[in-house]
Design a protein that fits this description.
569 residues, 21 helices, 4-stranded antiparallel sheet, 15 strands
């Protein structure tokens, strides 16, 4: 879809041209010196009394033009021309220290509604990203145990971020990184082995160190194997026993993860296994590249990476003295695979806040490989707390598991979970209110938004029962929508494409949830003050068109969140 279908973009583009023409005219008249044209921004004011758009061109030009901002604004104002019949604007004004405020013609608002009706479920999509190939890697939970509350938040945020990027015109791939090699799998094997042996020898006969996985899920997996295969591994060599237990247990854990994530409405294009980096020689290849570039040295029998050459506080081990590969080395190879082997132009990793210290060294390693650390962006998730009755909620849990994703979905509706996790910026800690998430009232934000959609469906259904069918409205009919509530609603409708782009560029899907809440609020105000089924047939049809546009826009926003848009509640 062409981004020019976005009414706000089209208006901004035209406004930039109007301002540029006025500044160029002032330069030709020697009112402004001939110099490089200043970069300026065009924004939508929070208060519509200040116009539909505002430009800061006068203030950013003051130093270049050696004139006061207000004088610059007045000179630009005097050279603005709105005479073109295709112009969306009918007037402008100067304000404050030098702002230029612009006001749209009513015909532009009619165009907004026509565009939404024409585009339907594609409304909000743009080609801003121009097909740039982007990967979003998120959740990537350790496959040695169940997914926890942080994974629940990361899953919701990562999935909606990928949806926003896709709607903004990027070529997006979702990926889950399976840590099926290295130290955590060794620990998994030892944990399974100890629990397996305890089944036959007794708990007191087999020690279970505190640094192994303590969860009941490990006991369940060991028992499941024993129920199916008995004591066949009891006298096997340790290496064979551990390998067989992992071979049995790991696929079951991964299958459970796939099922829970699918229930959570997350589907990945790729499940990438860490073990493949060892099997296909990628780790060796990347290590050799770093050696050839002079960023590897040997010390105390281990191989080290010169992280200090790239601004890090200390160097990092890549290969331990015993020959084992560090997690950091595997992570470098994984990202080399993303960029150099699979051709992603931008990679976005969604991590927990505890990984903050890993960012600089990984970006530096990509610089060392010649890939460019600036092509990797990290979204850090802050902590989330479950709250009930105003107090932190402690889920009834088995030892070692904590609050799991599947457990959360037993407590709250799926729509609420996905909406609530996306109401707060990833960089902010959040409290998840269990009481609010399950409440069926306007206090619950997801219920509030869904009810707006259902209310519109009810309006249209009642009109249909009375023999009134929607029809295409002419521009002059849409211009009848002049009430303040109608004007505010159309302004908000026009902003969806820009909100999606903002969410995509800033890696913050909360922009979409808050947009949906604001749109629902404006619709409820419209419904209270503007009766749809009026006797004036052209006005009635115009309001039906407005309702249909709101219905489409709410549905599109909820679709990005993978939240249902019910027709009745």
């Amino acid at each position: 879809m062409n981004i020019c279908k976005d009414p706000v973009f089209r208006a901004k583009e035209q406004l930039e041209e109007l301002i540029t023409d006025a500044v160029s005219a002032a330069m030709r008249e020697k009112v402004f010196p001939r110099t490089d044209f200043p970069e300026f921004t065009i924004e939508i004011p929070a208060d519509c009394a200040h116009g539909d758009f505002a430009a800061n061109v006068a203030m950013v030009s003051a130093r270049l033009f050696k004139l006061p901002p207000l004088k610059i604004a007045e000179e630009i104002f005097n050279r603005l021309s709105f005479d073109d019949g295709e112009c969306y604007f009918d007037r402008a004004e100067t304000a404050g220290p030098g702002f230029l405020n612009f006001f749209l013609k009513p015909q532009w608002r009619a165009m907004v509604l026509s565009s939404i009706i024409e585009l339907g479920e594609r409304y909000g999509h743009t080609n801003f990203g121009k097909g740039k190939k982007v990967m979003v890697e998120f959740v990537s939970a350790n496959p040695t145990g169940p997914m926890h509350l942080g994974n629940a938040r990361g899953g919701a945020i990562g999935d909606v971020l990928a949806s926003a990027l896709n709607a903004a015109g990027y070529d997006v791939s979702r990926e889950f990184y399976v840590n099926d090699a290295g130290a955590q799998i060794e620990k998994f094997a030892l944990s399974l082995e100890a629990r397996y042996l305890q089944l036959f020898k007794g708990v007191d006969a087999v020690p279970f160190p505190d640094d192994l996985y303590q969860g009941e899920d490990i006991k369940d997996l060991a028992k499941s194997y024993a129920d199916g295969f008995g004591d066949k591994l009891l006298n096997s060599p340790e290496e064979t026993r551990r390998l067989e237990l992992v071979k049995y247990a790991l696929p079951r854990n991964l299958n459970d993860m796939r099922e829970v994530l699918s229930d959570y409405r997350i589907e990945y294009k790729t499940w990438f296994h860490e073990s493949s980096l060892y099997n296909d020689g990628t780790i060796d290849d990347v290590l050799n590249i770093l050696k050839e570039r002079g960023f590897v040295f040997e010390k105390d029998g281990a191989l080290w990476y010169k992280a200090t050459d790239f601004g890090c506080g200390k160097d990092e081990v890549l290969v331990r003295k015993n020959g084992s590969i560090t997690y950091f080395m595997a992570d470098i190879a994984y990202h080399y695979n993303k960029f150099s082997m699979r051709g992603f132009q931008k990679v976005i990793d969604v991590w927990g806040a505890d990984h903050h210290g890993h960012i600089a060294r990984l970006k530096g390693a990509l610089d060392a490989l010649g890939i460019g650390g600036e092509n990797l962006d990290i979204v850090l998730l802050q902590l989330v707390r479950l709250m009930k009755d105003g107090e932190p909620y402690r889920m009834s849990k088995r030892q070692g598991l904590g609050i799991t994703l599947s457990g959360l979905l037993e407590l709250v509706p799926l729509d609420a979970a996905r909406f609530f996790f996306n109401m707060t910026s990833p960089s902010a800690a959040m409290d998840f209110d269990l009481d609010l998430a399950t409440e069926q009232s306007s206090k619950n934000p997801v219920y509030y938004v869904q009810y707006a959609h259902a209310r519109i469906c009810s309006i249209l259904k009642k009109l249909s029962e009375n023999g009134i069918a929607p029809r295409k409205c002419a521009e002059e009919e849409l211009l009848l929508l002049s009430a303040p509530e109608e004007d505010a609603l159309i302004r908000k409708l026009s902003q969806l494409p820009g909100e999606i782009v903002w969410a995509a560029v800033n890696y913050d899907p909360s922009r979409i949830t808050h947009y949906a809440i604001d749109l629902a609020s404006l619709f409820h105000k419209f419904y209270t003050n503007c009766h749809v089924g009026v006797d004036d047939e052209p006005l009635m049809q115009a309001r039906i068109c407005l309702c249909a546009a709101v219905k489409t826009t709410i549905a599109n926003a909820l679709s990005l969140l993978k939240i249902s848009a019910p027709e009745s509640m």
